[in-house]
Each structure stands twice: as C-alpha cells, then as structure tokens.
Amino acid sequence: MVMKKKRRSSFVILTTFVMLGFTFSASGNDFQVSAADEKAEPIAEEESVSTVQLNVPNQQAMEKLMQLDIDLAHRVLEHDGAWEVDAVVTPSEIAMLKVHGITVKDTLLTEKQWNQRVAERERAIQQQSAIAAAEDQLKVLRANHFTNQSGTFLYLEVKSSAGSTASTALRAEWTENGEQKSAAMSRKVDYGEYLYHFLLLPIEAKPDTVKITSNLGGSASADITEWLGADKPGNPKKHYVTNFVDHYMDPTEVDERIEQLAKEFPDLVEIIEMPNKTNGYRRHAQATMGGFTNTAVVVTSKSWGHEGGNDISVEFKNPGKNSSPLDVSVNGTNIVVELATNASGSTTSTAAQVVSALNSKAGNLVSATTYRGNAGAGVVTPVNAKLTDNLSAPDHISRDPNTVKAIRIGKHRDGSKPGVLGYSQEHAREWVTPLVTIETAERLLRNYAQDGETKRLVNNLDIFLIPSVNPDGGHYSFYDYNMQRKNMTNHCGPTQSDSGYRDSWGVDLNRNHSVGSMFDGFVGASASCTSSTFAGPSENSEPEAKNIVWLADQYPNLAFGMNIHSYGGYFMWSPGAYDPQRKTLPRPTAGEESFYWAASTHILNKIQDHRGTVILPSRTGPIPDVLYSAAGNSADYLWYEKGIYTWNFEVGADLWNASTNRWQAVGFQPTYAEGHEEAMEFANGLIALMEVAYNHAKDKQPPKSKAVPGKGTFDGPVDVTFELSEPATVYYTLDGSKPTFESEKIQLSGTREGAESIRVTESTTINYFAVDPAGNIEKNYNPLGNGNNFNSAKITIK
User: Fold this and answer.
1) Which of 417, 449, 640, 648 has the most CB within a 10 Å radius?
2) Which of 650, 677, 678, 726 is catalytic?
3) Residue 179 known to be catalytic
C-alpha cells in the first residue's frame, strides 16, 4: 500500500486567468495568443501535512484565522483572551499564519506518527485475515456450576484459536428446566494477550451440558461439573459483554461487519440500503506535464482511472525534423504529441497550442487544459507521462458508486416503536466514529439473550445505525490522504482540477443540508470548492446528504438522533448556525432546552462510567455556544425539519497531562489504544441515548406547572416565572384568551441562561398550560377542543 501524506499548498502564486483568442493550423505558425506572456512560476512541490495546535493571540487574529482557508479541527479552547485552535496545515500555511501572529504551539500528528498508525492497523488486519481463513477451534477450559449464599451460578471459560481478534464472538447454549437458554461470552485480555472467553451469570437450575459456538463456525460441548470452592460473598457483577472492536476499520470492513451481524441475528436485524449511491471511490487519471505554470499541460482521462484511464500514456516529443508542424497521433492508449519545430529544429509549440491539439485529435481519450487558467504562452519541452488516478486502495476496495448502508436493530421493526438514529463518519478522517456504532450494534445483539436492560431496549425501540455516511471519503482517508474531511466529488472547474488539488476536492457533508445553510446567509461554510468546509454547489447536492434526508422521511417514527464526530470532547445540540450578526437559528424553547440538558446529563454520566472521562460543562450545550457556527449541518435539519431531538458527539476528549500541567488533544486518529477507549465510552453514551428514548416513550405522566408568584394583588410590576415538575414547554396568553399551541411560549432568557420571566406591569390574567417532550399535556387539556381546564393566575397591579 502506498500512503500519501502530502498536498499542494493553497498559497501557490497562481497566474491570472486570461481569455484566449487564437486560430490553429497544422503548421502551428498561425497560432496567436492575445494575452501578453505571463511570468513562468515553478509548479509548487507537494507539501507534508501536519495536525497542529495553533496559538491565536487575540480576537483580531482569531477573526483573521476564521477568514482564511485553513482546515480547522473541531477543537477550540479560549483562555485569557487567547485561543488554542487545532488545524491541519502545510509548512507554507504555517509561514503565512505567522505573518498574522498565529504560531504553532504543539504538533499533534506527524507523518512518522501517522505511518505508525497505519502499520498498527495493517498488523491487526493481517492477523484477523489469517485467523478468519479457517474455522476456529474451541477448547473448553472450565464448565462449572456453584452455589453460594447469593444463589446458583454458571461459570465458563472457553478458548478460541481466533480469540486474539475482538470480532470473534462465542455464545453458550444450555438447557435449564427444559427451557433453552443462551448468552454471549466476554473476551478476557490482559496486557494485550488474549486469555479466554468467559461467562458468569445466575441460573435457576443446574444444566447438564453446555454447547459453545463461534461466529467463525467453531463449536465445542462439555459436561457441566460442580465447582467445590465457595464464591466470594456478594452478588457477582452482571454479565454484560463489551469490547468487540480491535482495530480501525475502513468502510468496506464496516459494511462486512454489519452484514455478518444481519446473518447471525436475522430476527433482530435488517440492513437498509440507502437509495442515493455515492460518486464512488474513483477519479479520472491525470498528469501535469511540464514544470512551469506557463509551459504545463494538464491531461485528464475521459474514463475513470480504473476503467482504462490509468492505461493512457502521453508523450511530448521533438520529432527530430526542422520546420515540422505540431501533430498528435493516437495508438490505442498511447498518445504522442510531436511538437512543432522551427528552421533550426527547436520546439516552438506553446502549452495553449498543445492543449488545443490534444482536445482536437485525442478528445475521445483525454481532455487537456493549461495549468490553472494560465494563458499557456510558454514553449512546451519534451516530456512523457503515464496517467494515474492517484488512488492507492487495494483491489478489494470497490471503485464503483457505493451503497451507503444502515443496520436496523429491533424486535419490532415495523415503525410502531420509537426510532433512534446514530450516524458517523460524515467527516472521513474521523476514524473512531464508525467504531462507536459497530461496538454499539454488537453490544445490543450479543447481550440481548442474557441482559434484561438490553432486551428492553431492543424490544421497545427501532434503532438505526449508519457506521459510515461517507464511505468514499473514508476509503480515501485510509489509503490516500489521512486528513480527508469531505467526500470525493470534484465540483471544481478546469482551473482547480489538476491532480495537485486532489486532496482538496469534495463537499463537507455536514455543511450540505438545507437548514441554516450558507446559501441562506449563515456562517460557517464556504463557497470555495477547495475549502475544507465547502458547502457544495447547492443545498443537498450530495447523495450522502440526501440519504440522511431520505431516512428521516422514510421512517417518521425517528424521535432521537446522534451525529457522531471527533475530536475534542464536545456534546452539542441545535441551533448549530448563526448569521453574520450572530443571530442564531431559533433557539429551543426553555422546556426543550431543559430536556436537552437533562438527557445530556444521563448520557454524559454513562460516558464517564467507562474510564472517568468528563465532558466539560464549557463543551456542553448548543453548538454556537461551545464551538462555532456550522452552516447547513445535518443535526439542524433533523431538529428543525423533522422535530428529532438530535445531539452531536465529538468523541476524543482532551486528556490531562500531569507532567506538563495542561490538557492534551488526542487528534482525529489517535493510537488505537486511545481510539479503542473513546469507542468504548461513547458506545456507552449512544446506548444511554437509547435509554433516554425508551424512558421518553414510556412517559405517560402529564407535567405540572405553577406560576410564581401566583394570583394576587401587588404594589408594582411583577416578574412571573414557572415551576415545573419536569422539562416542559409552557404556552401562555396575557389577554385572558384561551391558550393554544399558537400562543406564546416561554423561551430562554439568554445564551446559556434559564427560562425567561414574564414582566407584568398592569393587571392581567395569565392563562397557561405545559407540554412535556413526550407530548403529555398538563391536566390532559386539549388546546384544540372546547375544554377550559388550563391554568390561570389573575395578577392585579395597584
């Protein structure tokens, strides 16, 4: 595998685009260029890319950084009037930033470290492939039952020959009082060494035998014997299986994994194939021929690289004749350009002339342009090239348009149960995020048989998980350019479509949606096709974004969503965008905001349970309050258009470095050991969201509200607030009329503040009722009917 870690600088001095007027004849002598010759600039070499932490000294510098076309990560930290901002930059970009007082504080990921990550992943894949090549062998080490003061228990230890791979799953089956029972076994690893799979759980009766099966096809049986020693006092820990991922997985691996789960659990799983195919992990083959801006010719194959474009060769040659005309010949996939010569045999063809000749005589195979809009008045020198699509993925990675897949988990997948959506890898370089969804799916399915809480979720929810929204970009990030953020679709015109721009093509899928978009004047996306936050040519232009919309349209039972990103350890919700005056999209009501906070507390507590990670209060809340504006993001679409309570994970919270006494960023692709921990803790969080959804669906209790102060006579103006039994939205009127869903609602009093109060300056009656997020209406009042069982508070001002 060839790993490319470079891109051309965005700050190359580009020549001005000049419209050309010319005629072409076979001799080449009648060719006229209307523009003056342009200065010949060397074509810039490709530069290494690093992830760095920038020191932004003040507000002015911060505003300048936001204006520049710099690829910013999600991590932004303010302290003492300065900022720490993580970014993906080249050396020339670092030099440019220094001019504005922005310097590099720390380097987070170097090319050497990246190569280590790649080697680590390759070793894991090779090990997994070798193991999966044959059916695994199972050895039962322990098969016991015992009884202590707490009850009777079954204990098993089984070793698989493929156990060093985390995806190897063992299941135990036995008969208990005539009833068939089964449970998934936990994998025990110590200091990197696989020891065995085990199971410990209470049983009602002692079984005689147990059968162990593996998802790789192995099986073994054993008699169950009594363990003579007594267990330690107290109840054993509940048997709950985790740790199903052991390396970073590309989108092809992810699809294979969910397909495997669908075959293994047909009663609980189906695979949903999204209708909008991606553009594909594919590119046209190209070559930039020539070393200077005014002498270079960019040649692009008409066919995709893997469909013949990579077979094309182009040669610019001196025919070895005096006064020879410019000519192009095509022999199969070999194109030869014989450059025009003068009376002394020197070549005279300009780049613009060669472009015209290629398009005229080899247009069925290739298209040609001058370099980035240059007039092309410089004389071409002999050179040859083999066109290439510059894609390095192995052959088993399909180049064809990709069908994005979701795994749907639930006992009842008929739309009757509340839907929960988790989706990841909108941004290709965020490698941990697919692991969160895969780990979650595995936990739900492999704990279903023996864990009551898991069974409750799977039986009562309709769960949709999309491990990779952006498979094309994901493959490109794994095999070609690890910092790829966007998809692979090139919307640039000829002046930005040479291969030097290839790492900058694509659309930011989390800027391509129709709510709060750049096209509506919101901040946080770019119209530049090479920007890291390019919003696309129009709203929902990209099939990957259309798939999210399709899913929300197709399954109206969706009530909760989680958009999983990395890194920085943020936990956010709508609004996600603001305009140039920093006016945000409509804020949730005070009741809705209260529900977001309450649900977030439950989810964040479960994240903390894994290894103590705390998502900071400063990084929890609506997106603009804790990060920055993200025009056209998908979570805003789901919330404002579909009413789906949607959060944004940013996995990968900063780690405290006690030796340096500062927070340390983890990056998009941390060592797998760290990535694994992030996947484990945020899988906890995703399952906690499902718990929120389950409790929400079971909530049939109407809220209670109370105006404070209530009815009475007062000497002067009164500020009325509302006490609530739970998060709920309060609808009210001040003119004595009946409150309805069209009435005013209690809103937030300000950014990151609580509910507003109502200022009453003259005598009035406040009529009001509350509605909780589950739709329960206080006192079962019907705002659309004739009832009058709403609340009232008569306020008299002397």
Assistant:
1) 648
2) 650
3) no
